[in-house]
Amino acid sequence: MKNNITVYTTTSCPFCTMLKGFLQQNGIPFKEVNVERDPIMMQRLVNQTGQMGVPQTEINGKWVIGFDPERLMDYLEK
């Protein structure tokens, strides 16, 4: 099963940097959306999750809020 992963970030977020590094180190491909540069996507994100903070990661339709490697790995290929 191919995972569909989108990471929502901002430019200055240290946890976003940690999350992207974690995914890259584990060879996990992902799409990044910088909501700082795309206010329409930021509004969509808030509407979807009710959360304004980043990072937020959508994995196969499930959401992980913040930098949570254990939950990310749990959602992969399930």
UniProtKB/TrEMBL annotation:
Q: Which residues form the Glutaredoxin domain?
A: 5-64
InterPro entries assigned: Glutaredoxin (IPR002109), Grx-like_ET (IPR051548), Thioredoxin-like_sf (IPR036249)
**PROSITE patterns, sorted:** GLUTAREDOXIN_2
In its UniProt entry, what is this protein called?
Answer: Glutaredoxin family protein
